């Protein structure tokens, strides 16, 4: 990009949101006057503050700067490191190749990076270049950190043959020193906020050491100490004559004056990042394979990680170790090998936010997110999809897990904590954004960049900004500074539109791929009171009728003035037929609900007969500790335990006759079984047992049809009077099955894709109804159509096809609703008189955002009828009521689960 084009674009980007009444100088939510910007073509907007009737974006786009050639491809530093100074200055550091103009404005500061020299530059709060320096070719620049006083610390490795020298001052001065014993020493250089050189310290490699040292990370902890994370062999951190070498993965603590305080070994195969915590804590993130002592002090904490082969990569588990400010040991968390940690952030209280992505290649997987010895199983996350979890500072106890269905969180994506939120940033590759499960923002480009803010304590979505692009975005970092300043840095090709409020503002890059991508820096300002869209009743972000976040943050959702919102903003009234607090959650709109049973431990599946609701409580997640309950549909009495024991329910609780239930379970010895349970007294008759899973069961008359291990298919008498008879079935693993009109419906992948089939009762005469490359979950049928949910790139779609259709393709199906998103999985569709009901779960570990939605006949959009459900387990309909199970928080054990009832809408 030419400098003229950049300068012209810069002249059109600077703007802030003004205070109530407009006019005068721009100010933030606290009334402080903001910097004037003489190059701004857009004047300070006359937009009133929250409570004055305005509709505000959650952040103000302040400025975007673009460089060509800034950042080498195919290295960990393809995207520069970024830091924010106390006055809002921005510091970038990295490597570059060839001649690059480091000044993104109209000025020129050309430097020659040769074949990969390090650079450091600082921008003032107004975006003007304040300082630029180039690192000596003998010094690799591998890490950078900015201190609370604005001091800049650079770290890397000294390289080069014996007899040569390096200049450790990247500015106009010099500090020339011999390379020492054949190079491969570590160095730390300190600069002032203005780039003035202060000091350099070197840790020398021991004589004869063959290992090349590396620097992985640098931070300034909350006590002002500089901490360098490195790996090497026989490094002497003592500047005196005595040699006290350390080897392996090392932390080097220095004072702000450059004195060595401590050099400490930590046991990791690879150190990937450091994070500064509260009270001088240092959080070390890396990976490890096998068994090791995670405590670097005199204590012992033996941890274990199994290796796993994924996509041909041999890797271990992600490790997060907390070291206290006094250098004592805190704790170590080891995550399931399917959960790849990429970033760690810390809030003001010291709690940890651990982000990453599912590394599995086999679709959705169960991942244990408990970093200690216990279990916290989450069934979500396609391969590459992101997750975010919060750990307590004291011991790593999990507060919540927030999976993301399609917002990818690969290596080098951003994670930071501001005064208000936890922020994540990264490319969204062809999928929806999921801040609102029923009204997602769909990216336009192949790799738009999403910046999302979530609440610190409950991870509730607060706001999102989507940077549109016509090309692709690679590798992004986000940083939250003082006074709610945000910085987002990454690389892009094609066009980038950084301001959702101004689609005309576009930056262009001549790059066609990551090898020559341009670097961008977007500066944002987060307001005290942000705007959002929460829940299925709210419109899209920025549309008329949005409510201020403050309403949600203090619990208001229906009616009344929010005292936390300036000007007393009014929150919306409930829709017709719903009441405030109807489902038992204060200030949530819903049908008026009653409690049929409470004090339950993870109630999950549900089925109804004429008088009772039948459900299973699961006990500890992943444990064999289950019970079958029944409760009167009209209330009036407690639930009763019909059967309990050391088993786990794995099949649908829905196959029933007048006297029995049929369920599939896993036993404590790992065998699977198909049971017939007598409803009157819980007597169990075991119909089948073996090592293969009975994945689906349907009943037609007196016969049970069972799929075993996904492919095996057969039938047996429902009363247990005969043996299992194997039938032909389908030559592919089914994902759902349903009896319909004397025939069986099943869905499975075949040679051409994934399809729905109709089978005769003997398993023959399969007719293919529908074919698609996407995943299908068959849900049911009405008098004229087959209904199903299809997994798509943009979430899920509810579709239907005529019941007599044969061999249709995706384009032949009628789409009822697209971008239909479910969390902690939803329970499907229920049909009634041409209308259908569906359910969605909450997206967080401790969520009350589950609900049931209703599609009236011929409607274009769903109507939410029950909201505020704390992790919906299942739901069912009677003629006049909706019955559902509410699982409660997803801890190991809970007594917050409930069985609920609400009258159906007219």
The helix fraction, in percent, is under 10%
Q: Radius of gyration, rounded?
A: 30 Å
Q: Tell me the structural class.
A: mainly beta
Number-wise, the strands total 71
Q: Can you describe this structure?
A:
About 0% of the residues lie in helices and about 50% in strands. With about 900 residues, the chain is mostly beta strands. Strands 1, 30, 31, 32, 33, 34, 35, 36 and 37 form a 9-stranded antiparallel sheet that branches. Strands 6, 7, 10, 11, 12, 13, 14 and 15 form an 8-stranded antiparallel sheet that branches. A hairpin with a 3-residue loop joins strand 60 and strand 61.
Summary of the model, kept short:
With 906 residues, this protein is mainly β.
Strand and helix layout:
Layout: H1 3-10, E1 59-67, E2 81-84, E3 90-101, E4 110-123, E5 129-134, E6 143-146, E7 152-158, E8 165-167, E9 176-178, E10 185-191, E11 197-205, E12 214-220, E13 226-236, E14 246-254, E15 260-266, E16 270-276, E17 282-288, E18 290-293, E19 302-305, E20 308-310, E21 313-315, E22 317-323, E23 329-334, E24 339-346, E25 352-358, E26 365-368, E27 377-380, E28 385-391, E29 398-408, E30 414-417, E31 421-428, E32 448-455, E33 461-469, E34 472-480, E35 485-497, E36 507-509, E37 518-526, E38 531-532, E39 547-548, H2 549-553, E40 579-580, E41 589-590, E42 593-600, E43 603-608, E44 612-617, E45 626-632, E46 640-645, E47 647-649, E48 655-656, E49 660-667, E50 672-678, E51 684-690, E52 694-700, E53 703-708, E54 712-717, E55 725-726, E56 736-740, E57 743-750, E58 753-759, E59 767-772, E60 776-781, E61 785-792, E62 795-802, E63 808-809, E64 814-820, E65 829-832, E66 835-840, E67 850-855, E68 863-869, E69 872-877, E70 881-886, E71 897-903
Parallel strand pairs: 59-63
Antiparallel strand pairs: 1-37, 2-3, 3-4, 4-5, 6-7, 7-10, 8-9, 10-11, 11-13, 12-13, 13-14, 14-15, 16-17, 17-22, 18-19, 20-21, 22-23, 24-25, 25-28, 26-27, 28-29, 30-31, 31-32, 32-33, 33-35, 34-35, 35-36, 35-37, 38-39, 40-41, 42-71, 43-44, 44-45, 45-46, 47-49, 48-49, 49-50, 50-51, 52-53, 53-54, ...
């Amino acid at each position: 990009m030419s400098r003229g084009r950049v300068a012209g674009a810069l002249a059109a980007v600077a703007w802030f949101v003004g205070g109530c009444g407009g006019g005068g100088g721009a100010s933030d939510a606290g009334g402080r006057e903001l910097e004037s910007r003489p190059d701004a073509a857009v004047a300070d907007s006359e937009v009133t503050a929250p409570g004055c009737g305005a509709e505000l974006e959650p952040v103000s786009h302040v400025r975007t700067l673009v460089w060509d050639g800034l950042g080498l491809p195919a290295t960990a530093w393809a995207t520069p490191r970024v830091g924010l100074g106390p006055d809002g200055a921005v510091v970038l550091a990295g490597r570059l190749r060839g001649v690059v103009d480091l000044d993104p404005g109209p000025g020129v500061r050309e430097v020659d990076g040769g074949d990969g020299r390090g650079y450091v530059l600082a921008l003032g709060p107004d975006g003007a270049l304040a300082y630029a320096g180039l690192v000596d070719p003998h010094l690799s620049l591998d890490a950078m950190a900015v201190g609370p006083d604005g001091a800049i610390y650079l770290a890397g490795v000294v390289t080069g043959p014996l007899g040569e020298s390096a200049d450790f001052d990247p500015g106009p001065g010099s500090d020339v020193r011999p390379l020492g014993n054949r190079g491969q020493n570590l160095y730390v250089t300190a600069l002032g906020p203005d780039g003035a050189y202060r000091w350099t310290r070197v840790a020398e490699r021991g004589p004869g050491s063959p290992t090349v040292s590396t620097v992985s990370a640098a931070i300034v902890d909350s006590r002002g100490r500089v901490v360098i994370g490195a790996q090497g062999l026989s490094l002497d951190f003592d500047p005196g004559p005595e040699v006290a070498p350390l080897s392996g993965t090392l932390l080097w603590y220095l004072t702000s004056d450059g004195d060595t305080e401590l050099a400490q070994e930590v046991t990791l195969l690879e150190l990937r990042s450091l994070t500064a915590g509260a009270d001088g804590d240092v959080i070390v993130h890396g990976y490890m394979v096998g068994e090791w002592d995670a405590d670097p002090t005199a204590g012992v904490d033996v941890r274990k990680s199994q290796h796993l082969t994924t996509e041909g990569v041999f890797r271990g588990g992600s490790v997060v170790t907390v070291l206290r400010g006094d250098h004592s040991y805190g704790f170590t968390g080891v995550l399931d090998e399917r959960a790849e940690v990429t970033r760690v952030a810390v809030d003001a209280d010291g709690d940890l936010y651990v982000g990453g992505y599912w590394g599995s290649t086999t679709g959705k997987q169960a991942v244990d997110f408990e970093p200690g010895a216990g279990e916290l199983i989450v069934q979500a996350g396609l391969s590459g999809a992101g997750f975010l979890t919060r750990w307590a500072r004291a011991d790593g106890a999990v507060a919540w897990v927030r999976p993301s269905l399609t917002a990818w969180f690969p290596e080098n994506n951003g994670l930071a904590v501001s005064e208000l939120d936890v922020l994540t940033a990264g490319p969204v590759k062809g999928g929806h954004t999921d801040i609102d499960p029923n009204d997602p923002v769909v990216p336009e480009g192949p790799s738009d960049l999403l910046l999302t803010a979530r609440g610190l304590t409950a991870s509730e979505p607060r706001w999102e900004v989507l940077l549109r692009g016509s090309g692709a975005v690679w590798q992004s970092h986000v940083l939250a500074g003082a006074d709610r300043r945000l910085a987002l840095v990454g690389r892009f090709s094609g066009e980038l539109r950084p301001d959702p409020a101004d689609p005309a503002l576009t930056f262009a890059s001549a790059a066609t791929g990551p090898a020559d991508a341009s670097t961008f820096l977007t500066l944002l300002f987060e307001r005290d009171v942000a705007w959002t869209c929460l829940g299925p009743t709210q419109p899209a972000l920025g549309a008329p009728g949005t409510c201020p976040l403050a309403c949600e943050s203090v619990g208001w959702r229906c009616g009344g003035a929010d005292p936390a919102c300036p000007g007393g903003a009014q929150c919306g009234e409930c829709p017709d037929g719903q009441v405030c607090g109807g489902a038992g959650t204060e200030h949530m709109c819903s049908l008026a609900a009653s409690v049929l049973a409470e004090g339950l431990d993870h109630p999950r599946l549900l089925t109804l007969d004429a008088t009772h609701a039948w459900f299973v409580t699961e006990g500890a997640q992943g444990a064999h500790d289950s019970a079958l309950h029944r409760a009167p549909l009209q209330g009036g009495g407690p639930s009763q335990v019909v059967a309990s024991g050391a088993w786990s329910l794995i099949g649908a609780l829905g196959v029933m006759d007048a006297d029995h239930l049929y369920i599939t379970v896993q036993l404590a010895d790992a065998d699977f079984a198909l049971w017939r349970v007598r409803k009157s007294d819980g007597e169990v008759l075991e119909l089948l047992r073996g090592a293969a899973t009975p994945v689906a069961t349907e009943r037609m008359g007196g016969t049970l049809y069972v799929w075993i291990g996904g492919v095996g298919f057969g039938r047996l008498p429902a009363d247990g009077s005969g043996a299992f008879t194997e039938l032909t079935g389908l030559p592919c693993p089914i994902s759902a099955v349903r009896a319909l009109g004397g025939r069986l419906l099943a869905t499975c992948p075949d040679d051409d894709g994934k399809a729905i089939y109709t089978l005769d009762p003997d398993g023959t005469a399969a007719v293919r109804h529908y074919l698609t490359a996407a995943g299908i979950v068959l849900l049911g049928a009405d008098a004229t159509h087959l209904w199903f949910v299809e997994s798509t790139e943009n979430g899920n779609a509810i579709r239907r096809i005529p019941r007599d259709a044969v061999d249709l393709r995706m384009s032949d199906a009628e789409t009822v609703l697209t971008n239909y998103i479910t969390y902690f999985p939803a329970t499907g569709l229920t049909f009634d008189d041409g209308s259908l009901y569906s359910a969605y779960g909450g997206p967080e570990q401790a969520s009350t955002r589950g609900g049931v939605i209703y599609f009236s006949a011929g409607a274009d959009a769903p109507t939410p009828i029950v909201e505020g459900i704390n992790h919906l387990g299942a739901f069912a309909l009677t003629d006049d009521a909706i019955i559902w199970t509410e699982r409660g928080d997803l801890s190991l054990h809970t007594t917050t689960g409930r069985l609920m009832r609400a009258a159906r809408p007219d």
